[in-house]
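Hey all, quick one. A colleague (J.T.) asked me to put the magnesium ion job into the tracker so the inputs and the structure tokens live in one place instead of scattered across chat threads. No bug as far as I know, just bookkeeping. Sequence used:
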Amino acid sequence: MAKVKSAFFCQNCGAQSPKWTGKCPSCGEWNTYVEEVIEKEHASSPSWNKASGPARASKPQAIDQVESVAMQRIKTADEELNRVLGGGIVPGSLVLIGGEPGIGKSTLLLQIALQLPNLKVLYVSGEESEQQIKMRAERIGIKNNNCFVLSEVGIANVFRQIEELEPQLLVIDSIQTLYSDKVESAAGSISQIRECTAELMKFAKETNTPVFLIGHINKEGAIAGPKVLEHMVDTVLQFEGDRHLVYRILRTTKNRFGAASELGIYEMQGEGLREVKNPSEILISQKDGDVSGVAIAATLEGNRPLLIEIQSLVSPATYGNPQRTSTGFDNKRLSMLLAVLEKRGGFRLGTQDVFLNVAGGLKLDDPAADLAICMAMISSLEEIPVSSKVCFAAEVGLGGEIRAVNRIDGRIMEAEKLGFEAIYVSKFAQRAIEGKKFKIAVRQFGRIHEVISDLFG
Ligand code: TYD
Ligand code: MG
């Protein structure tokens, strides 16, 4: 019998060491080393490389001489997914989708599989039985006899079935449940994840079949397993959103075949996920008349302009220490904006509780939301509503200056499309909008107190 070999792996970054160490020399985390058994000596089970003989030795070529192939992407029925993938599924690509439990990863991928009637799809689940998957498919309500399901955790058997079925798209739900006999440690351990991903990648590249992997995420929100998993795959998508809210966001965090900052929005309904084609409309609440404390920011998520409602409540603190609480926005940046308003605008906010909320459960990190946030707070403090026909797109500097933001023309166009009457931007954005004709009034300002006196008199 072959000798059992074991090694220690950092559960954070995947670094390997022959002995236990307290601090990982590679990523600096403490107490992350776990012993895992690796035994490659008597690898007996089949895997995807069994049939393919010795690899062809590749030779270097001049880059000019390399034949360029137009990449034929597979367009899915799901426009949001096509966008986050950079224009459709690339054949032979390995795509990882991460997200919290219950967010809808299995629903999303099953739905995509069912919406591709011209493609033979194999959906492998290590988490649910065929009956459970069937129940979900019935809920989604799309009929497709070209979609096959398999409840299996052994990768060797998965490959055996693949050879027989020859699917044109493979879905693995989830990579953490898959198990390869070549590695002795438990399913979900670093070495298992790494081995299974490597075999799936080999399969994807050699047969030009796209593979989707579902990955669990850990408490900190990173995809569980080593960072190497993210390095190995071509595309990493994050499926996020508050589980109690109906909206879900699919975000690209890495993409070898497209922009890495794209975004798709879905709504979770009783019959699966529905694409949200015009997200700005859902992010701005419908209401009769104007309310104080609300302002609309023209932000950019990836390449997509989004108008988002900012709500704030400013009221005198009753219990000693004033509170500053924000949902969907960085608390430190909020403190900075409050200090700017105090110092440059002359508002007494030090004695006030400040609550801030970004509509729709979104997380904002676009500095262009600064001006809308400031105006929402002042509107609440003064109890003067901001007209719901105006929006804002500018960063606020420490000196109270209104700074220009990127892609201002895209933001203005989106606001115009949605029927806004005016947008407040920086006067330093002049160059970007020169010579363009907009129906919407573009108001340009250089300092925050000028905006305040224009709005609140
Ligand atoms: P699921 O896809 O199982 O999440 P994950 O694979 O990320 O763990 O589904 C998550 C939730 O979605 C579950 O609580 C039930 C709900 N759901 C709907 O609201 N409508 C539907 O049509 C389906 C299939 C699920
Ligand atoms: Mg699932």
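Adding what we noticed when we looked at it: The two ends are 86 Å apart (CA to CA). The pocket of magnesium ion (ligand 2) is lined by residues 105-106, 127, 173 (CB under 6 Å).
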